[in-house]
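seq as requested:
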Amino acid sequence: MTGAGQDNERWVLPLGSAAAQDFSVSVTNDRDDWTHTSLRVADLQPGRSVRIDLPTTEVVVVPLRGSVRVFSEMGASSQTIELAGRESVFAAPTDVAYVPAGGRLTLTAVGDARVALCGAEVGESGDRKPHHLPASDVPVELRGAGQASREVRNFGTPDVLDADRLIACEVLTPAGNWSSYPPHKHDEERPGVETELEEIYYFELGASGEMREGADPVGYQRVYGTQERPIDVLAEVRTGDVVLVPHGWHGPAAAPPGYDLYYLNVMAGPGAERAWLICDDPSHAWVREGWETETMDPRLPFGGGTR
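struct tokens:
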């Protein structure tokens, strides 16, 4: 563990470096070193559409900004889901749409929109149907305490969303706080203890006050490995950047003073059990004990304002 970020070039994807066709971000198993998860992000002008075939990939459609119409075609059947969305990722949880593998998807912006497709490879399509999860049904969890306080929106976790392999959520960290902490990993199959999951982090930053002209806010993300499976990522992250976590301890994700940090997590793995089981780095697991006497950051939960 050098802390020099010697693997940044491989696992950190600045905005624009992973663009493809209609997507500003396109991370799929077309990469030689990536297998189970995918993320696509599209910025759409009013009325504009993007189409994609998903023969082996299940997805959750997540409006990051604005409203989106989701039209799915599965064989001879089709379905339209209207997603109300939100003003920004910091404004509120959003409703989402689940679409199983085996069909074609068309997304149409209702007004200006930015939309994410969180995906997992499932092979052959099953008998699941597209469905809508309202924002009111998205559990909002306040996790940690003190400067480790953050908000987690669990729209795509196993106890909320019926899916084959996909696990997804959003995490919002107030300015100056750390999240993804203590550092943890999920890269081994240990029944009841840990599951093997690839993970994608997609980042956005917003001003906790008024964004000043010319501001270029950055957060920070750390990933490090074991002696047997080394990895060394230490990255500045800006809006639209992606960090891939194939294995290893990851955390913290740090928000600088003055700027709130958002990230979208996409996870999936090869195991038969769809579960999000993590293991803390033993060197830092004791940090959780302090949360029992610390209070939650009063800035949480987010919502109700323009960010």
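The two ends are 36 Å apart (CA to CA).
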